[in-house]
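testing teh design pipeline on a random one, pls ignore if ur not involved
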């Protein structure tokens, strides 16, 4: 079947990498797995060799037809629709959420799942290599940014392996990477307001080459930096996740108005 660009369809075709993916996911009978974007079933079939049932979310009616025709309906529950429209509570019952994600909305999908705080699921996703690098980047590295801070607050993130474009058909223009995100059991330092955390990380990285002092002009002053033990001349990319949490706690407690 012809791949549809508008749905970000690049089908996995390399058996070596499909096997590597299944090894990492390690499906067990006790698992409740949901796959995002099963397409023609490149990952779905090998999973069903290991466990009896899988849930999937697929937007393309043609793909849904393929899956319905090929897989016994006792083995698969299909949500035929857009993942971005699903109620985020949908994900609560699963302990593994997996997928070769449509790259055009990969970060949106990950953020959506992140926001379901009652989900403890392990996430196994294929994304564009650059996105994988940003998600897993450590402070003071080129890829460290807002995505790293927000996702590493919630998850232990790991880039498991890279895949060349030729592992897919049609070949994407980019290199891909398979990542794992395991939700952290956060004890101790926690953010107080999710929306402030989002806003603060946005502001901190708004102008990447500028200092924290500059990006928080009229919001943070010298005495604030002293209290926070953050050098005003530092750039956001050098701060640790803990320093970002401190920053959020500080600004939330002070009830500082960000609209200045
Ligand atoms: N898992 C298959 C594979 O590895 O060969 C297909 C992966 S392909 C990169 C992405 C899949 O996500 C496609 O099947 C596409 O139709 C589906 N998709 C795209 N946008 C979607 C959305 N908003 N909601 C649900 N599925 C979507």
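output:
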């Amino acid at each position: 079947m012809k791949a549809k660009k508008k749905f970000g369809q690049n089908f996995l075709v390399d058996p070596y990498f499909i096997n590597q993916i299944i090894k990492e996911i390690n499906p067990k009978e006790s698992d409740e797995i949901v796959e995002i974007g099963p397409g023609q079933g490149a990952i779905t079939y090998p999973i069903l060799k290991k466990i009896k049932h899988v849930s999937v979310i697929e937007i393309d009616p043609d793909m849904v037809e393929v899956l319905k025709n090929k897989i016994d309906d006792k083995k698969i529950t299909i949500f035929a629709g857009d993942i971005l429209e699903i109620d985020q509570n949908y994900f609560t019952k699963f302990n593994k959420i997996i997928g070769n994600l449509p790259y055009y909305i990969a970060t949106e999908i990950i953020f959506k799942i992140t926001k379901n705080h009652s989900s403890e699921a392990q996430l196994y996703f294929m994304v564009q290599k650059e996105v994988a690098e940003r998600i897993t980047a450590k402070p003071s590295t080129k890829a460290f940014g807002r995505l790293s801070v927000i996702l590493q607050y919630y998850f232990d993130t790991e880039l498991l392996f890279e895949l060349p474009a030729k592992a897919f058909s049609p070949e994407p223009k980019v290199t891909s990477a398979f990542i794992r995100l395991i939700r952290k059991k956060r004890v101790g330092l926690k953010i107080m307001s999710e929306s402030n955390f989002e806003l603060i990380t946005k502001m901190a990285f708004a102008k990447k080459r500028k200092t924290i002092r500059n990006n928080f002009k009229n919001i943070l002053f010298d005495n604030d930096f002293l209290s926070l033990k953050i050098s005003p001349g530092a750039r956001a990319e050098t701060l640790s996740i803990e320093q970002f949490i401190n920053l959020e706690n500080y600004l939330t407690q002070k009830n500082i108005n960000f609209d200045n």
